[in-house]
Design goal:
The protein is an alpha+beta fold and 292 residues long. It is built from nine helices and seven strands, in the order H-E-E-H-E-E-H-E-H-H-H-H-H-E-E-H.
């Protein structure tokens, strides 16, 4: 088992987007960035990004917390209805209460506090809630590298880590590739209202067909709900009414504020894994973080 505090910053620097050899990029590989730009490197010295913060924590840098942004709530059940809206909308909430005013002095404690703050704002998990390892995924349903992760790596994580109780996986929207990304994310939340987030999540990734080319038009998204046997009247009202428009956009804005710039981006108990990595990269991070 690898000691996470022994991992050095240069072991966590993003490789160029076209890197094909996992051996050359053991932690970070391919990822989607806006307008075809390669996934940027994450600076271990930057306290303006969550990944930078977490890397710094791993190697024992001193420092304070990020400016405390606004996160999304856990759904529409406690949200105030918007005026003139056909359905109640899910509102963002202030996440400052998730962080103490003074950061803990211990690096491991600071990392845990930051992860706990993120976990408290994550709605969708699969796996044992008491699993020792939490994997948080920032993802876009149109992202081809996210689709690769879904098809090639996620099933192995499910079999070897989630089903065994070693890890659980949480999903956070980073829908930044265009309008169909936002609509797909909103639709997944409408499906979640009917306890079908993960079924709809799988349907979306299985239905990728280019970016903003109509695969995730609202008509198609409604068709996916029908295919899954959901209450289409409730689903359509949710999607057409924009119940989760602000919710999803807030998650995207939050991701940008903490330094997420490409998808997929993962945090494995605070260890960053960026891009379409093979299972072995996640296994290494899981083993390094087990028990932390």
């Amino acid at each position: 088992m690898t000691d996470p505090d022994s991992l050095q910053p240069d072991e966590m620097t993003a490789a160029p987007e076209e890197t094909d050899s996992p051996a050359e990029a053991p932690v970070m590989e391919e990822a989607s960035s806006p307008k075809g730009r390669p996934a940027p490197s994450i600076s271990p010295h930057s306290w303006t990004t969550i990944a930078g913060v977490l890397i710094a924590l791993l190697i024992g840098f001193a420092g304070g917390y990020l400016a405390r942004p606004y996160l999304n709530g856990r759904g529409g059940e406690n949200a105030a209805p918007a005026a003139d809206a056909p359905v109640a909308t899910a509102e963002p909430v202030d996440a400052a209460a998730s962080l103490p005013e003074t950061p803990p002095a211990d690096a491991e404690a600071r990392r845990k506090v930051l992860m706990d703050a993120l976990i408290s704002q994550t709605k969708h998990f699969k796996g044992d809630p008491n699993a020792p390892v939490t994997i948080l995924e920032f993802s876009d349903f149109q992202c081809p590298y996210c689709g690769r992760f879904f098809a090639q790596v996620e099933p192995e994580i499910n079999r070897q880590s989630v089903e065994s109780g070693q890890a659980r996986v949480g999903y956070i929207h980073f829908a930044f590739l265009g309008p169909e990304s936002l609509w797909a994310a909103e639709a997944s939340e409408c499906a979640a209202d009917q306890d079908a987030f993960w079924e709809y999540h799988d349907k979306l990734f299985s239905s990728q067909n280019g970016e903003n080319k109509g695969a995730f038009s609202k008509d198609n998204l409604k068709g996916f709900a029908a295919d899954l046997g959901l209450d289409t009247d409730a689903f359509n009202q949710c999607l057409d009414g924009g119940k989760y428009t602000r919710y999803v956009q807030s998650q995207v804005d939050f991701g940008r504020q903490i330094g997420v710039q490409s998808t997929p981006t993962f945090l494995v108990n605070g260890i960053p894994v960026v891009g379409a990595q093979p299972f072995e990269a996640f296994q290494q991070a899981i083993e390094a973080s087990s028990g932390n």
